[in-house]
Design goal:
The structure is a homodimer of 232-residue chains. Chain A is α+β, with helices and mostly antiparallel strands and 232 residues long. Chain A has 3 domains: 60 residues, Orthogonal Bundle (Arc Repressor Mutant, subunit A); 44 residues; 86 residues, Roll (SH3 type barrels), CATH 2.30.30. In chain A, the strands form 2 sheets. Chain A has a 5-stranded antiparallel β-sheet, covered by helices on one side. Chain A has a two-stranded antiparallel ribbon with strand order 1-2. In chain A, strand 1 and strand 2 form a beta hairpin. Chain A is globular. At the A-B interface, helix 1, strand 3, strand 4, helix 4 and helix 5 of A face helix 1, strand 3, strand 4, helix 4 and helix 5 of B. Strand 5 of chain A pairs parallel with strand 7 of chain B. Chain A binds a DNA duplex (30 and 30 nucleotides) through helix 3.
Amino acid sequence: MKRADRLFQIVNFLQGRRMAVTAERIADEFDISMRTVYRDIRDLITTGVPINGEAGVGYMLDKSYYLPPMTFDVEELEVLMLGAAMVSSWTDKDMSVSARTLIKKVRNALSERDRETFEGIALFAPPSRARLPWAINFSDLRKAVRKKEKLILDYADEQGRATERTIRPLSLVFMGPVWMMLGWCELRSDFRNFRLDRMQKVTHTGELFEDTPETALQTYLDSMGICDGLKL
Amino acid sequence: MKRADRLFQIVNFLQGRRMAVTAERIADEFDISMRTVYRDIRDLITTGVPINGEAGVGYMLDKSYYLPPMTFDVEELEVLMLGAAMVSSWTDKDMSVSARTLIKKVRNALSERDRETFEGIALFAPPSRARLPWAINFSDLRKAVRKKEKLILDYADEQGRATERTIRPLSLVFMGPVWMMLGWCELRSDFRNFRLDRMQKVTHTGELFEDTPETALQTYLDSMGICDGLKL
DNA sequence: CACTATCCTGACAATTTTTGTCAGTATGCT
DNA sequence: AGCATACTGACAAAAATTGTCAGGATAGTG
């Protein structure tokens, strides 16, 4: 089991690096010869790990997440499939595509026999009347949450008055058919929820923020008495 | 890579069997000695596969699904997390628990560094006003879809009239804040959608059904012109 | 262009891991 | 008690992995 283990660790070693890594560097790290590194990389690639090698440069791993073998029970796998299907129907094009890829990947990994079990378990028809159109892009918001990038929001409030605010995006909240973004509003110096369907325009500032005790997501959750039940 | 492969196949071999399988049987199947089987099983168990061995009986695998190592990109993993969170908030207690377990399992499989990326991406507050209470159990329906078990439904239609029908549950559909069950209604000999919040009682008949060309999910989808966009 | 840094491959012996054999113990079932 | 089976340790046999060496190929650079 030594080799299988090392393969996993090599991926980990490659993960999250900006610069290419040479075979020599890897050989050094794991105390193996370069020849073995080449063999390991070859095997990783054939099992689907997106490593790119370039002569004269080194190895780069596409930004990806390598999960070790895992066992799920039927419920967990059903959550995965159901969840991906919900996301596919209720977010935007980009995520919908990813959701489908995810479902396909997982389905393909199952045995023939098991695949049927998860046929048609869930199906989703987001009724157009319930789903208000967005002027903005869901994925942009998601990325901003992930990167902790401040956004400038052109927003129409409940009375339809347009405002422009700088916010720190903290989380996305799904309320029935409506998506909201929870953010720290720099104008009001407080937490605010913004409906995605009321956002007119989102401008990326490129400016990143750090969580402070006052502006962190956890603070908001605590203040709302949300401890575990709803928080992810 | 031969061993790692065989380990995976052994799990597959064990999967979906009612009777215990002896080491001898496995040894035979894979052309290896029993000693090796014992070693393989030991290693599988230490990597978390839920195999139970009993002296005098053989091996049994808890009903579970073993996924091989897989790579996901950031979007796919986000779909997984987001989806599980949605399921956790929008279904019932049982699935909610499974969703949390799923999220924990996947998080634990990620490296320290990556774990942070998926912190607080999404958070869900199912507003109680939008979520109508159910008299029945979501998980029961899910299981019936999976098993293809006919159900007897006490249902209140739009005018509030109570009816009792035998249906073949085909799929669960999430429409905004409302869940529906799509089924083939034996009373009307046609497809019908039933809102979960209008179901008064669900009786399990124990009777299983086979899809026929007339009653299959695919037929319904085709008739609705749903081809790919919404189907899972 | 030549040069460097690197990826990549084949062959084969050295090394390490896996496997089989054997001998024995432990445990659940009838 | 007797049987069927899981399980373990020791050690030699077999197989896989690894290192070494001797190349070839290719991207980037002066």
